[in-house]
Amino acid sequence: MASKGGEGEHPSVTLFRQYLRIRTVQPEPDYGAAVAFLEERARQLSLDCQKVEVAPGRVVTVLTWPGTNPKLSSLLLNSHTDVVPVFKEHWSHDPFEAFKDAEGNIYARGSQDMKCVSIQYLEAVRRLKAAGYHFPRTIHMTFVPDEEIGGHQGMELFVHRPEFRALRAGFALDEGLANPTDAFTVFYSERSPWWVRVTSTGKPGHGSQFIEDTAAEKLHKVVSSILAFRQKEQQRLQSNPRLTLGSVTSVNLSKLEGGVAYNVVPASMSASFDFRVAPDVDLKAFEKQLHSWCGEAGEGVTFEFAQKWTEPRMTSTDDSDPWWAAFSGVFKNMNLTLEPKIFPAATDSRYLRAVGVPALGFSPMNRTPLLLHDHNERLHEDVFLRGIDIYTQLLPALASVSAAPGDG
Ligand SMILES: CSCC[C@H](NC=O)C(=O)O
Ligand SMILES: [Zn+2]
Ligand SMILES: [Zn+2]
């Protein structure tokens, strides 16, 4: 039966489907089950397993394969264990059943984002160990909680812990996105999330009057200014084929609040915006721009941040960089096309880059529609298995980089 796999199914696919069935879904992920699954993998692979509780119930699991030269910095393979919620009624199969159709598509929340990558790391390491390989650099696999809600009780805390420093990470891989073409995408930077709530205050009164200086009129002005900026950035993207979503700034108006009754003019109203600021933007100047938009709307218009990332970083994609040379060299050898881009949303890579660990976002999915966070998220088993082949080439190359900045 197609949905059960079983006979004839590749054991790596079976393991992937087992992991997909663990309900690590926000807002109440079953992290206990995920950690137990990972501990069992460590046991099976004879890997050292460390658990670091960065906040109550928020455990980072670290599986380690020691290298032969302890002087060298390590390779860190990161993945998050949580997944985003589902609208079950819009799915053709239970999102936590890991149903496989007759063609080999595996339907599950997390199949692309990013339980595939966790299992691909583990299976690549298993294969390499079984073949008797040893590499100079230590490989650490970190499995972190809460990425989907910003990583504030996950990677953001972990990078400041002594246990993280003790890993001596020299370079990291983290998540990327599916590419519908033959090519693979790699992300060397990401946009900064700025979540901004604009509050407008004004004169209240009876809804039948032409009240002067209302909160709504001033909020409308700010909304217009910001949506005009949105249109300008969208046009800039559409008119230049060299630009991608990650290289311009986007914004969406995602919440409007205020008011109590039709005939009561409210004294306060607010609008919330999700800005994703391109990494080449002058952030001080951009904040000034926000102040001007509010100021131009009139008195009593202010804003506050719910998220404000101010440390965008670029990981080198220059051939003179030893990590990039090793990473991109594998794709050349395998005759695969690589498209370097800026990640449009936010990942845990930003915390790694901010503490000086260069990171690339890569999920080996080509010929795959972008379905993360979407209904019917799925991945074809052949694409998944090909991803293990790719990591089986990538890990030896990266764990054998001879000299890199930061080596002891
Ligand atoms: C700013 S914290 C939110 C992080 C989230 N990451 C994945 O979707 C995102 O919206 O990009
Ligand atoms: Zn993700
Ligand atoms: Zn996600």
Automatic annotation (TrEMBL):
What cofactors does the UniProt entry give for this protein?
Zn(2+)
Q: What class of enzyme is it?
A: hydrolase
Which residues carry out catalysis?
Answer: D82, E147
* Residues involved in Zn(2+) 1 binding: H80, D113, E175
* Top-rank taxon: Eukaryota
Q: Does the keyword Metal-binding apply?
A: yes
Write out the entry's keywords from A to Z: Cytoplasm, Hydrolase, Metal-binding, Zinc
Coiled-coil stretches noted in the UniProt entry, renumbered to this chain: none
Question: Known EC number(s)?
Answer: 3.5.1.14
A GO-annotated cellular component = cytoplasm
Major place of residence: cytoplasm
**Gene3D superfamilies named among the record's database cross-references:** 1.10.150.900, 3.30.70.360, Zn peptidases (3.40.630.10)
Sorted alphabetically, which InterPro entries does this protein's record hold?
A: Aminoacylase-1_M20A (IPR052083), ArgE/DapE_CS (IPR001261), Bact_exopeptidase_dim_dom (IPR036264), N-acyl_aa_amidohydrolase (IPR010159), Peptidase_M20 (IPR002933), Peptidase_M20_dimer (IPR011650)
Say which family it is in: Belongs to the peptidase M20A family.
PANTHER family tied to this protein: AMINOACYLASE-1
* Name recorded for this polypeptide: N-acyl-aliphatic-L-amino acid amidohydrolase
The organism's taxonomic lineage, starting at the top? Eukaryota, Metazoa, Chordata, Craniata, Vertebrata
